[in-house]
Amino acid sequence: MIVGMQSMSKKQYEDFLVELFFDWAKTKLSIGEKLHFKSPDDKNSLKLFNAFCRKSESSFSLDNEEIKYFLINGFRVIPVLHSDDSPGYTENYISYLRDHVSSQMGDFKNSILLIIHNSSLDTLNNSSKDLTLAGNIWNTKAIYVALLGFINESSFKDHEISKHLLNHQFELICADGATMFGFEELFNAVQDGNIEFNELGYLNDSALESWSECNINQIEKRLNENKRLKEDIEYIIEQFPTEYVEKLVDLDFSEKFIEKFFSNDDLESWKKTLDFGECQQEREKNSVDLIEFFELNPYEVKKYHRTKGATSQKSSSASRDHHLILEVAPNQTFINFDVVFIKGQLSEDEIKTSNKFKKLFNFRVNNRSNKKTVISLETEFDGTPKYLNFEIKRSKPKECFKFRVLLIPENIFPVSSFEDKFLIVPNKELIILETDQSEFTFDSSISTTYTLSECGESIDTNEFGAVDFDKLLNTEEQVNFILKRNEHTLAFEIQGILSVSSLNLPLIFNSESYQDFFDDQVFGVYNAKNSRISFSGREYRTKNEYKKLLELEIELVSQKVLSTNTIRGAEILIDDLATAYPVLSMAYTQLYGYLKDKNTTLSLVSWGTEFRSLVNRVVTEYVELIHAIPTERMLSHESKTLVNLGFCELDGVEYITPFHPLNLSYFLNLINECLNDSTGSFKTLHGTTLRRLSAEGLIPFNWHVEHDFSYSQAVIEHPMWIQVIPQKQTQLNYIRPLVRQKTTEFVEAFKILFNQGERDTLLINSIHNGHNQELFLGLVGFVQKLKPQDVPNIHVNLYDDELTTTYFDVVADAVSQMQLKQLCKLSLLDNSVDQIADLIRRRITYSKFEINEEANFEYAHLTFIRNNTPVEVANVDLKAEKTGIACNGLLAGETSYNQQSTYFTTAGLKGIQCDKPVLQIVQRYSALSHAAWKNQNFYESNGLALKVSNKLQQLLDRAYEDSLWTVIIDPKVTLDFFKTQQDVVLIHYSDNYTNSAHYDAITVTKRRDLYDQILSQGQAGRIDEFNAFNGEWLLKMLTLPEKDRREKKSIIAAYKYINSLLYKSDITWVPLSVAEMIRVSGNIGLKMSESDFSTYCQGKKYGVISDDVVFVGFKDQQMYLLPLEVKVGQKQRHDKGILQAQKLKRYLETCLFGRQDLMGHIYRGLFIRQIMMQVEKYQLYQTYPENYFDRLLQNREWWLGGDYQIADIQNYPKGFVLAFVESDTFFQEKFGLENDILVIKLPGACQNRFISTPLKVLLEETDSKHLFNIPDLYILNGDTIYSQIDLSDSSVIDDEQHVVFEDLDQGSTLKEEHQQNLFDSSTEVEQPEATEILRMPIPQISIYDGPLRVHFGENAITHEQLYWEPTNTAKFMNTNTGIIGTMGTGKTQFTKSLITQLMQNQDSNVNSAPIGMLIFDYKSDYVDDEFVEINSVKRHKLYKLPYNPLSLFGDTPMLPVHTARGFSDTMAKAFGLGVKQQATLRKIVLDAYEKAGINKADSSTWHLPAPTIKDVWNLFEATEPSIDSLYAALESLNELEIFELDNNQCSSLYDLLDGVLVVELAGYPPQVQNLVVALTLDLFYSQMQKKGKPQVQGDYRQITKMILVDEADNFMSQDFPSLRKVLKEGREYGVGMVLSTQDITHFKTGENNYSAYILTWVIHRVAQISNGDIKAIFNIDDKSEQEHLMETIRKLDKHYSLYIDGHKKLVKMKDKAFWELCQQLQVS
């Protein structure tokens, strides 16, 4: 990049920051303000402080300390640094300075404090303005904008790219949460207006500079790739400074390229010289059109071939490093072998070999075609081991190959013993053995072992079968030895490897070797001696979990056994079938023979063509045979053999073996599906989904010989083996994590009961949990998770039908600490294990009880109850029973339904086409089992279903009563069982521990009140809708912070709103909680990210992705997906939400359900299973109108097949963003289409209606009016047309693969400080006595109990009634009110309503005190008959007003002088008098007092009648004055006789105000109007002070007088002091003012800002309004919010206003108009 001319001296970054501060501060500072900037880096703080000091030219002294400051707009800004070292000050000293600044005295007058600190002291942080917050100058965004300005001013043409770089860096800095100093590098780069890539952590990119008109996403993508490559190279250079060449080769750089840019002497310069574009070209060149190694063909020679790296690591150089051992027959002297390459040609000069080997072999290159090359090699062999070495060297790293070859005489050395662990080193003529063991067995037929005592020893293979080198491993750096056989020797060196990885079984579940799974030549071999599996030239450990099963499988093959001796009967050998079933016997013989020949077994085999045909023969023959068995009679002995084959017993456990026809047919079906999928998507399936692929669910339970029935359970580590679990022995392995989690959640939810550690006791009832081992271990897990001091005492009451020994007894009897630790299954490696064992011994206690019909259970916080109601069997015809089969038999599981209070579980085939062998076996197998094992006649209607009776009910009823939460384990019933009990709330259900459609655990509570309350206004039905949507949320609502609760509620409101838009269409819609589907499945055993559909499982790391709602629609054969992203908060821009919705839709379509491959098929089936569970929940809670889902359910089986397509609705949005905007300034709903996503913005309050109204009711009102006037085109109605989706473009997703999942696990770990407490009882509960806990008070919603209030109107959106409470100081600190609005907006109607209600309701005043109301009426608005009559108005025109402005009130010294001064000031303001005229007037007034006998210094004379205006005029006239403005002023007062001339007729203004007094000002000149108001207010103010303070009761202060100045604009502009005084001090005296005006600007004059004294505002439509006005009244800085408010105010209808209450809360209001009030008063 061309670098601009550097300026002579570079500006320092901190000076730039100071300049920014100065520019900002010119308009933003106010006196006495404290500003602060918190920097975690002391060096940066010092630099910034010094930069300020350079600007500070002045200083003053405080206690001998020099205080520097600089001036901005006349303010003294004092910068201080918080630091322990000079020039910094301590926190205390800064606080001392802060107090001085607050005082504004002396040197600190007009001062402002600027603190630069790194302190967490509240006194520094809370009492000062943070300069890094949005809107302030050192906010990261502000710095970014300033830097952008720098670039824009530069003269460089390429600054567009600089902006993108800047933007990219800005996002990274924000993501790191850095302060403004994070931009320092950027600043230095930007200074010359030109950014160097390498200065910002990128590689230079000259190509990018020339990109002109370019998509931002492309630039972003390129910058991301650049950054990633730079980081990869940096890592290699730093971590592998000596081996960097071969590591860089793996990044696809050729050695030539590496040589050019990197050298050992200088490992830094590449950062400046390397260009990203060049790198990409080099890498691309090196990764396209590559020649590939195809095969090695030795002629008539046995070969052992492996690569150094696993073949799965295709791109690594180790996978191109080939090692070959050839065993040569004695008579062969010339050896030929071919190395074959495809996809290109090689030339002879590309084959390199060192001089040492050149003479040892000849080669020729034969280019058979453009795409195929064969290198033929020839070498002599004389019978002694011979090493060869050659390489293919080309410029592209991926076309470089190494070949190391060893020739040895055949049958001399035991190569097969090390074929999976050798590497050949021709230069040293030795073999490396890669092993993690300390013994090497080379001949298992010889039992003697040679112990190596020193390196290099020779071992005779005729005498020894193994070598032990354990001793040398610890002492020698290199362990080597020689194997000797007769005259031949081979040298070996041991190379330790960290650990051998293990294989998954069956082999086809190792997806990295997927490409080999259809090749008969690829298979694994088990070595029993060291329990290793050899596969594809590598060695693998066997997992303990499947080792015995694998060995048993091998034994079955070698002994030709089909079934071992089990309770079903004697052993069945293949030969036993020969007579009755010769074809089946032959098929099994060939299958076993194939495995035996290859020394392999079923789970280690690849399913090549030959093997598949062998399996197919077995399966098809078996299907024919079982379908030929006649019904309605007993089975023959031979037929029973058919049913019994494929069973084994091992260690007392029964299994269905991999050779059972059910297993063979299932896996054959799976392999055929894989072959049909040309994309090979199976290899990308995640483990979560792989684990579902087994035959277990096809027959999830079956009849049993000894017991009624048994369950099937695939062995997790080896799902070809299915465990047969007799009904009475089922041990649920998920009880332990369930108990741990539920206990943890309970303690979290009811934190207040458990905050004192061992002083608290957690009470648990365990009912019917048998031995209780899993429950006990779950509690151990709970204890382990807590800090020792937080572990409460735990008392467990164990209940069962009879007293038996439990695990609790076993633990209690433990004699040693060691035994206790073992029983608690504590890891002995953990340091804290002794402490935990100790806690368990001390804190866990238990009691045992027999369950007794009469006696109640003990009170408990938490009850774990297992449904031990006997499961009974039912005989059914599977073809007629509901099915759980999906994806043509690949996914299967049972399903449940309820019939007359009996709960059935079936694995039927209703609606399923049984056209595959696997399903044809299922069709008859269960009924055949019944005939074989129960010795009954064979009927197809004797398939097995399970049923559970309703006996659980009585037991639960008792358990509920005595417990806060009841967890039912293995409920065996469907959710509707619990739903029928009205007072019980389901707070959590989990359904993902198993593949079944059952729930594994259900948590319920009788404390419905708690949950109703959390879900807000205690509306019942709401809980059901909550639960139907997401089974986890209710449980979490107790512990979630308020913000998250709000979010959850708004999602419910949003899905009901969108549902209303879609409901009337011909598509059946099912809303799904994405949180439950993609991320979580609400279970314990799985981590948050392990749902089949989570993006984590898909290997996609999206950035933001919607996790709220997806609407899934079904019609004909199409499925529709409409995502809904919900936002709640103050933001009004939702670009991120739009992106989230788009990504979710794209992800679901391209990664999951739209894929036309096996994986897509499986996901489509899994998804419908989830949809069906969701539909059942909606039906259970009756969320939707009856029969709504019928159309979907009629085709249930077809949908489960997964053969549907996904589509879009023509001409309709592709998704929704619904934002509930909780901003006081947002009142108007908005709808807009952005990028095909419909963005709906509704005022926050709108959600209440949707939360509280049942969905069924909402769906009856789907017109635009009920949906906040949404345009009709967004409301679907009737027929819809679908359009195909283009699935080829997955760019939306792949762009961001590197972005990490946002808030993936947000719900699972709650921060301590967010925990909300439900109870407001004190935390000092002494002992946790049951009754105490149960009756904890729950806060009630307070009921209104009648202080004085005025009905202002109603919230225009929520219709909530709005009241003004002028006496309530908790809500309104003062009663001053501003009413604004132009003519005709309803302003006067509102004001008259306010006054009328005050007068009507004055009985509600504190002590029922009467209220005096003084109205200055400029336009005769308050003298109409109706108003006068209702309020008994006293009217006074400006003639002989019955009060004297010169009367004296109060006891202030020299009171007459003050009064005279006040009178002359007011006259001067009204008539514009000069100083001299004012003095004259003042003297005349004082003379008038004297003439009336009033002595200014003698208060005893002040009660005498005061002089009137007439008296003052007479004195004035006697001075023969000239005619000037003073003359005019006094003359008009006297001539018009505005005030009463006769003192005896005057009374106190305060006494006059005993109702409504209207002073009518209309018709007089403005000067006179304003003078009368001003003089009256002067008088009022002095009388108010004399009267003293009103009564106060608690939060309520009495109102005594109210003053209304109508059309106050003209009056306010005069700045009469009395107005400000009454506004400011009135509240103390129970006085409030209402100022009504046409414009907001009138409240601010040159001298006064009256709006500062007004708390309540009612703003009607105003024509002229500015940003400044909005800021003043609404206190809003954000420009866009200001604009939005101005727009709103300009468009307000008549009788509509914006109401701001005492807490600055803003509401759009429909006024309560005076005429409405009159109608009401008449009616009442």
The best one-word shape is: elongated
Low-confidence stretches: 1-8, 991-997, 1017-1021, 1079-1091, 1095-1103, 1290-1344
The percentage helix is 25-40%
Query: What oligomeric state best describes the polypeptide chains here?
Result: single chain
Question: What's the total helix number?
Answer: 55
Biggest sheet descriptor:
11 strands, mixed
Kindly summarize this structure in a few lines.
With 1724 residues, this protein is of the alpha/beta class.
Task: Describe the model.
The protein is elongated. The longest helix has 24 residues, at 216-239. The strands form 13 sheets. An 11-stranded mixed β-sheet has the order 54-53-65-64-63-55-62-61-56-58-57. Helix 1 crosses helix 2, helix 6 (159-176) packs across helix 9 (216-239) and helix 47 (1509-1518) packs across helix 48. The model is unreliable at 1-8, 991-997, 1017-1021, 1079-1091, 1095-1103 and 1290-1344 (pLDDT under 50). It is α/β, with parallel strands linked by helices and 1724 residues long. The chain is 34% helix and 21% strand.
Key terms for this structure?
1724 residues, alpha/beta, eleven-stranded mixed sheet, eight-stranded mixed sheet, 55 helices, elongated, disordered N terminus
List the helices and strands and how they pair.
Blueprint: H1 13-28, E1 34-38, H2 42-55, E2 58-62, E3 65-72, E4 75-81, H3 91-103, E5 111-117, H4 122-125, E6 129-130, H5 140-153, H6 159-176, H7 184-190, H8 206-209, H9 216-239, H10 244-249, H11 255-261, H12 270-273, H13 276-285, E7 292-298, E8 302-307, E9 321-328, E10 334-342, E11 351-352, H14 355-358, E12 361-369, E13 372-380, E14 386-392, E15 401-409, E16 422-425, E17 430-435, E18 439-441, E19 449-451, E20 458-460, E21 466-468, H15 470-475, E22 479-485, E23 488-496, E24 524-527, E25 532-535, E26 538-541, H16 544-559, E27 561-563, E28 572-573, H17 582-597, H18 609-627, H19 637-644, E29 647-650, E30 653-656, H20 661-676, H21 687-690, E31 701-703, E32 709-715, E33 718-726, H22 735-749, E34 761-767, H23 773-785, E35 793-800, H24 807-812, H25 817-823, H26 833-843, E36 844-850, E37 860-866, E38 871-876, E39 895-899, E40 902-906, H27 917-934, E41 943-948, H28 952-961, E42 963-969, H29 976-979, E43 985-990, E44 1001-1005, H30 1008-1014, H31 1022-1029, H32 1033-1037, H33 1042-1062, E45 1068-1073, H34 1074-1079, E46 1109-1115, ...
Helix pairs in contact: 1-2, 5-6, 6-9, 17-18, 18-20, 18-27, 19-27, 20-27, 22-23, 31-36, 45-46, 45-50, 46-47, 47-48, 50-52
